[in-house]
Amino acid sequence: MRMWMVNPSIMCQKHLCGEHVEIHMFLSHLKVGKRVDGYIKNNCLEMKSLFYRHKEISEEMIRRGYNHSSEMTIEECDCINTYSTEYQNHLINKSEAISNLISRCENCSSLLVEYSKIFDYQKIQKDIKFLLSFVPDWLFDEIPKNIDPTFYISGSYVNDLNIQNRINEIINSYKLQP
């Protein structure tokens, strides 16, 4: 049993549904007070995240059109309070978990690559919108058409060049196609 604690969007069906089942199994173990030393030591259990991780996994399952009918309540997860604070507060090393997952599963690895492309493109858009947010609305009417509006921002030629260079760096650092 293990909780991967990686973004569910990059998990294949087998690992997504597998983690979902294993979260319920962990909860059953915790309710009856079974020992979890090995799961903690081996970076497989993050007690405080059981409820929210279940919610995150089930939302991804529903988004993909899978059936989900095994609800979990936050009250059910109160059973973690019978364990030591050290165990309750243990956090899974997410970098280690994602490396482990993509080394084990070609499908998850492929989904990570696809997700990264989407994420990077969205980050580019977000960065550009952020930079453009500094342009006063009235200035857009003053800018001649067919000229990059990001160039006339600060009122200072040097600052305008610096901003334009930064925008170009952002665009060039993500050599992706929309």
Topology:
Elements: H1 13-31, H2 37-41, H3 50-63, H4 85-88, H5 94-104, H6 106-132, H7 137-142, H8 157-173
Helix pairs in contact: 1-3, 5-6, 6-8
Order of helices and strands: HHHHHHHH
The largest β sheet comes out as: none
- Provide mean pLDDT, rounded: 81
Q: What's the gyration radius in Å?
A: 23 Å
Helix content: 55-70%
Task: Supply the helix-strand structural class.
Answer: mainly alpha
Query: Rough shape?
Result: elongated
Which consecutive residue ranges, at least 5 long each, have pLDDT under 50? 149-153
Strand content: under 5%
Please describe what this structure looks like.
By secondary structure, the protein is mostly helical. The chain folds into two domains: 8-104, no CATH class; 109-173, no CATH class. 58% of the residues lie in helices and 0% in strands. It is built from eight helices and no strands. The protein has helices spanning 13-31, 37-41, 50-63, 85-88, 94-104, 106-132, 137-142, 157-173. The longest helix has 27 residues, at 106-132. The two termini are 38 Å apart.
